[in-house]
C-alpha cells in the first residue's frame, strides 16, 4: 500500500513539473485581456496674441433752430483705437488705447481668469455690466450713439473687479469698483476716491437662434464722485447726457447734485426677438439721500431692431444680449 501511495505522489509531481515546463501557446480561441486605456497627454497651452483696432469717421450737417453757434456742421474722427488681446490657457488680458480730439486715453485694460466656461473673474479698468448697453462695445451697438436716458446714468469704465456666472437660464454679475477718475489721477490729487458695488441678474428662458427672451434687473450704489471744484469734490454727482452726435459735443441735459451722501440706482430690462425682429427696453431710476431733500431721476428707452436680409438673431451667453449678426 505504501508503494502505491508513493508511486501516485511521484506521478503527480512529474505531471506538475511537466505542466510548468511546457510553454503556453496562444491559439485563435485564446482570449486576450484588453490593455488598460491610456489618457492622451493634455496639450501645452500656447500664448495667443491678437491685435485689435478701429477708426470711426463721422460727418454731419446740422440745421438747428437754437444754439446755432454750437451745432456746427463738420467732420471728425471721434474714436481711433489700437490694442492687443492675449490669451494663455484660462488667462486672458487686454490693453486698448484710444485717441480722439488730440488726446490719448486708456480704454479697456484688464486681466481675466476663466474658472470654467460658465464663470470668470475680471480685474482692471473696463465697463462693468449694468443693463444691456453696458455689455457690448460701442462699435457693436445697434444705434450710432447710446440712448440719452442710458447715457445720463451710465458709469462708463471703472477700476474694479467683476465676477460673472452664467449657466442655462440664469446669469449674474457682481462688481466692486472705484470711480473712473482713479485711472486718470493719483489719490493725493483726487482725495478720497468714490467706491461702489453693482450687480446684473438675468432670467433667460429662450436663447435659441431666432427665438430669444430675457428679463433682468440691475442695481448699484456708490459714494460721491470726484469734482475739480473743491466745494463739490466727493460730495456731489453730475448726471449729464449729450446730444447724439460726436461731431459737435453739445450737452442736452445736466444735473449737479450737491450735498450728497450716496447714490443708488436700479434698472429693469426686457429683451425679445423672433426671427430677424428684436425689441430692447430699459428703465433707470436714481435716488440720492442726504440731509437735504432727496433727488430722484428716471429715464427709459425702447429700441426696435431688424435684419433686412440674413440669418435670424442669436444670443450671446457672456454679454447677456443679442449677438452681433453674422454676415
UniProtKB/TrEMBL annotation:
It comes from the Bacteria. Gene3D superfamilies: Porin. The keyword Signal applies. The keyword Signal applies. Residues 1-19 form the signal peptide. Keywords: Signal. InterPro entries: Porin_dom_sf (IPR023614), Porin_O/P (IPR010870). This is Phosphate-selective porin. It comes from Capnocytophaga sputigena.
